[in-house]
Design brief:
Layout (H helix, E strand, L loop, with lengths): L2 E5 L11 H6 L1 H14 L3 H7 L2 H4 L2 H21 L7 E4 L3 H8 L5 H18 L5 E7 L3 H12 L4 E8 L2 E7 H13 L4 E4 L12 H11 L10 E4 L4 E2 L3 H13 L2 E2 H10 L4 E5 L4 H9 L6 E5 L2 H14 L1
Parallel strand pairs: 1-2, 1-10, 2-7, 4-9, 10-11
Antiparallel strand pairs: 3-5, 3-6, 4-5, 7-8
Helix pairs in contact: 2-5, 2-7, 5-6, 5-7, 7-10, 8-9, 10-11
Protein name: Malonyl CoA-acyl carrier protein transacylase
Catalytic activity: holo-[ACP] + malonyl-CoA = malonyl-[ACP] + CoA
InterPro entries: Ac_transferase_dom_sf, Acyl_transferase_dom, Acyl_Trfase/lysoPLipase, Mal-CoA-ACP_Trans/PKS_FabD, Malonyl_CoA-ACP_transAc, Malonyl_CoA-ACP_transAc_FabD, Malonyl_transacylase_ACP-bd
Length: 315
């Protein structure tokens, strides 16, 4: 393996994202227009004009980030960008990876992630869940503190993002207890995030069941590249296995650290983040302890050109 692509999830969205890329690449707005036909509203206008509170709504954020990742990927391929040997996505980003690898139809994916976001929002009423980022402790310490703080409620590690960076989620009171327990254990920072949907926890079981029903009628094709799934850091090639992985992903943690470690162990020399923001690139650099891997995030014309040149030089 020489080249891997990764796709961000919720949290990387922002008003005005991909505007400069869209100014020189018509297919960006074309991709958003395609998504808008499925959704029944102007997704591009929402991403460019807001309001930010509406874009941050889970059932709108998910189609927006999917469209952004696919649009950036299409720009990459139109300019002769190479097909990577592997892809991975962070949470929602797994759907983007499936589309870009050829395993899932884009329009189907748009409707699917809109439903996924709606089901997640319904699973836990607003204000009852909480999410927090924990810095400075290892995974085992975070898991132990969550077990101690649960007291019959749900609070658990939701994202193993990088060494010393874990996101926890669950019932609001349990998360607050866990924050105090983690501070007592020496956490450098414990920051509540402005998200109320405790995704990747057992509280999402109703959403997982609804998603399982929806996925039964979803077709998956053979992938052009290797998709690596964060729920178990494995490939899932057949349709039933993919469906099961996507359902489990809703209630189980994102194992991003292990996923990138697996990509590095397979010999990747370049990892490109495809879509707005640089969140995953920052995490990947923390995971790559040897600092030998070329990493770049594509989100505008300049970074697209840099990535093209970087991949040619590292080929």
């Amino acid at each position: 393996m020489t080249l891997a692509f990764v796709f961000p999830g919720q949290g990387s969205q922002s008003i005005g994202m991909l505007a400069s890329l869209a100014a020189v690449e018509p297919l960006v707005q074309e991709t958003f227009a395609e998504a808008s036909e499925v959704l029944g509203y102007d997704l591009w206008a929402l991403c460019q004009q807001g309001p930010a509170e509406l874009l941050a709504s889970t059932e709108r954020t998910q189609p927006a980030m999917l469209a952004a990742g696919v649009a950036t990927w299409r720009a990459w391929r139109r300019h002769g960008g190479a097909l990577p040997e592997a892809m991975a996505g962070h949470s929602l980003g797994e759907y983007t990876a499936l589309v870009c690898s050829g395993a899932l139809d884009f329009r189907t994916a748009v409707a699917l992630v809109q439903f996924r976001g709606w089901a997640m929002q319904q699973a836990v009423p607003a204000g009852q869940g909480a999410i927090a980022a924990i810095l400075g402790l290892d995974d085992a310490q975070v898991e132990a503190a969550c077990a101690e703080a649960a007291q019959g409620e749900v609070v658990q590690a939701a994202n193993f993002n990088a060494p010393g960076q874990v996101v926890i989620a669950g019932a609001k009171a349990a998360v607050e207890r866990a924050i105090e327990a983690l501070k007592a254990r020496g956490a450098k920072r414990a920051i509540k995030l402005p998200v109320s949907v405790p995704v990747h926890t057992a509280l999402m079981e109703p959403a997982a069941q609804q998603l399982a029903e929806r996925l039964r009628d979803t077709d998956f094709a053979a992938s052009e590249v290797r998709d690596l799934y964060t729920v178990d850091v494995r490939r899932h090639g057949d349709a039933n296995s993919i469906r099961q992985s996507l359902v489990e992903q809703v209630v189980k943690p994102v194992r991003w650290t292990q996923t990138i470690q697996a990509i590095l162990a397979a010999g990747a020399r370049t990892i490109v983040e495809c879509g707005p923001g640089k969140v995953l690139t920052g995490l990947n650099r923390r995971i790559d302890k040897n600092k030998e891997i070329a990493m770049l995030a594509i989100e505008d014309p300049e970074s697209l050109q840099q990535a093209l040149e970087m991949c040619r030089s590292n080929a």
